[in-house]
Amino acid sequence: MNWQALEQALAAEVDLLGRAVDLGERKRKTLTTNDVVALEALLPEEEQLASELQAMEFQLTGLASQLAGKLGVSSLEDVITSPVCPRPQELGQLFEQMVIRLAGLKQLNEQNHLLIEQALHFIDYSLKVIVSSPEDPAYDADGKSHQQTNPRLFDRKM
User: Fold this and answer.
1) Is there a contact between 23 and 49 (Cβ–Cβ < 8 Å)?
2) Are 95 and 11 in contact (CB under 8 A)?
3) Which CATH architecture has domain 3-132?
4) What's the confidence (pLDDT) of residue 96?
5) What residues contact residue 88 under an 8 Å CB cut-off, 6+ apart?
6) Lesser CB count within 10 Å: N end or C end of the chain?
């Protein structure tokens, strides 16, 4: 059984998740400071890291499935806690770090999602204020209403 490869894959996954958490924190900082240039600079790094994480997850899943099949268990956690595992403490610690980092990354992603959503609502509101112009009713001597339009900053036909 390839326990060493599993340990290396888990360690690499933990490292990549740590990098993803760091990136998420930098992204949150740029979102809160409205630094669009810095946010754009993070995108290629985020894409590269997502690609690396996907490849590592695929490798880790393959190794775990292979070992689980040989041991007659169904999950990575069961593989690590099996009596034949040569380094249960080390693998258990790596697994725990992976779970903790995944939870932290999930929380950061949710916060960043909310920040982006709030920014989009603000932009939408600002555009509506700029584009729409309320029409002021004007009355003539007979009391009839004539709508007077204010000049618009942007033409809606654009």
Assistant:
1) yes
2) no
3) Up-down Bundle (1.20)
4) 97
5) 80, 81
6) C
Look up residue 156 and give its amino acid.
Answer: R
Tens-digit pLDDT profile for residues 52-83: 999 999 999 999 999 999 999 999 999 999 99
What span, in angstroms and rounded, lies between the C-alpha atoms of 51 and 26?
19
Q: How confident is the model at residue 127 (pLDDT cuts 50, 70, 90)?
A: confident
pTM value surpassing 0.85: no
From the CA atom positions of the chain, what is the Rg in Å? 27
- Is residue 92 scored above 80 in pLDDT? yes
- Asked if 79 contacts 6 with a C-beta cutoff of 8 angstroms, the reply is yes
Q: How far apart are CA 7 and CA 60, in angstroms?
A: 9
Give residue limits of the domains in the chain: 3-132
Whether 64 and 10 have beta carbons less than 8 Å apart is answered as no
